[in-house]
Amino acid sequence: MEDTNVVFAVAVACLVAVTSTLVYFIRYLSSKPCENSQPEKNGVANKDPIGESKTIPQPKKKNVFEHKKISKSNFSHPWLSKSLKAHTGNVLDADMSSSGKYFATASEDRSIILWATSDFSTKNNTHNKGRVEFDHALRVCWSPDSKALVTYKAAANCVEVYKLTKSAEGKFSGFEVVVTFPVLHESGEIAGMGIDINGRYIMTCSTDNELVIWTLKGEVLHRMNTNMGSTHAAVLSPCGRFVTVCGFTPDVKVMEVVFSKTGSFEKVNRSFDLKGHTSGVFHVSTNTDSTKMATVSKDNSWKMFDTKIDYGKGQEPSLLFSIAFDTRGEKALIALSPDGRSVAIASSTDVFFYSGVTGKFVKKIEHVHEEPITFLVFDPSNKFLLSGGDKQVRVFHNVVGYLATIEDLEQKKRTASHTAMRDRIADQIAEAQKFLASLGEC
C-alpha cells in the first residue's frame, strides 16, 4: 500500500511539473510579437520591399525625422525673403517668364512647378504642379507668351514642348505635349538651352560642343561645333540676339543668330570673344540689352565686360574690371541682374554678392543650400535673386540692387534742375533707405 501511495505521489508531482512547464512555454510564445501583428504605439512593424516584417522602435524613427526636418528648414538670413517649398526631389533648373509674373522650376521628382512671383514678398505660396511623364526635366524655359514651356528631358535626351492646359473653370490643369524634338545630343550632357524672346528659335548645346539652333517645331536651322574642348555653359541673351558659350578654353565665344528682315533664318555669325581669362570659364551671364557680360573662371577671377559695341565695324568689347574670386577648384555660376547693377556668384553651397557697377564685394551668404547650387537667376524687376540646390528655392532681396539704385538717384538729385524733380527723387531715396533699414542694412 505504501508503494502504491509513493508511486501515486510521484505521478502527481510529474504531472504538475509537466503542466507548469507547458503553461510557461505557452505564455512565452504568446509574449513574442507575431509576424502578422499590427503596428503598436511603441513599436512600428514595417514591411520591407520583399514582404518581411521588421519592428522599428518609434522613438528612433521620430528622432531621425526631426533631424532631417530641422536641417531642411533651419536656414535663415536677413536678406532672405522666403523659401519656395513643394518639390520632393532636387531642383535642377528654373526660368523666369518674360513678363516677370511666373517662375518655373524643374526637379528630379518628375514635376515642374509654376510659382506666382507676386508671392515672393508675402507669406502666400501659390503654385501649380505639372508632371513630366516617365522622365524628368534637366532644363526648363518659358515661351515668350508664357503659355508654354520648353524642356530638356533626361532619359529621352531630347527637347519637348508643353502647352499649359486649363480646366473648364479656367484653372491650370497640367501639361499637354505639343512637339517632341529628334535626339541630336547623343553623347554629351546638356550644357545650355534657351528660347528667343521673339519666338524665332530654340538653342541647345551639349558638353561635347554640339550647338544646335532649332525652329519651334523641332526642325534644325543650324548645327555647329563650339570647339571649346568641353563646353561648360551656353547662354542665350535675354534680347535673343546672342548665344554665348564658354568652356575648357579661356576665351568666351559670342555668336549672333541672324535673321532677315522678313523673319527667315540666315546664319549664325561669330561676333566677338571675351578675352582675358587664363584658364577655362565656368559660366557667363548677360544683362537685358546685352551691353554687359560677366564671366567666372577657373583662374580664380570674375570679369565684367562692356559689350555695347558695333562688332561689324571691328569694335572689340572692353574689360571694365577683373575681381579675384577663389572658386576652390569647384564649378561656379554667375548671374548678372537685368539692369547690370548687381552680380551674384554661386560656389558650392555659398552665394557671393558684388556691385555690378564697381565690382566691389558686398556680402557672402554661406550654406544657402544643403547641396551644390544648380542655378542663380534675378527677376526682371531686379528686386530678387533666386537660387536652387536641394529641394527648395531661396528668394533673396537684392540688397546690392537697392544700394546701387540709391547711389544712382543721389547722382540724379544733384543734377536735377527742378525742385519738384529733386523732391520726387528724395522720396524715392527715402523709400529705398527705409526698406534697407528693415533688413538691417541702412
UniProtKB/TrEMBL annotation:
Keywords from the UniProt entry: Membrane, Transmembrane, Transmembrane helix, WD repeat
GO CC terms of this entry: endoplasmic reticulum
Membrane-spanning segments: 6-26
Keyword Metal-binding belongs to the record: no
Gene3D superfamilies reported in the protein's UniProt record: YVTN repeat-like/Quinoprotein amine dehydrogenase
GO BP terms in the entry: endoplasmic reticulum unfolded protein response
Protein's UniProt name: Transducin beta-like protein 2
WD repeats: 84-115
UniProt cross-references to InterPro entries, sorted A to Z: WBSCR13, WD40/YVTN_repeat-like_dom_sf, WD40_repeat_dom_sf, WD40_rpt
Region feature (Disordered): 34-58
Annotated organism of origin: Notodromas monacha
Domain of life: Eukaryota
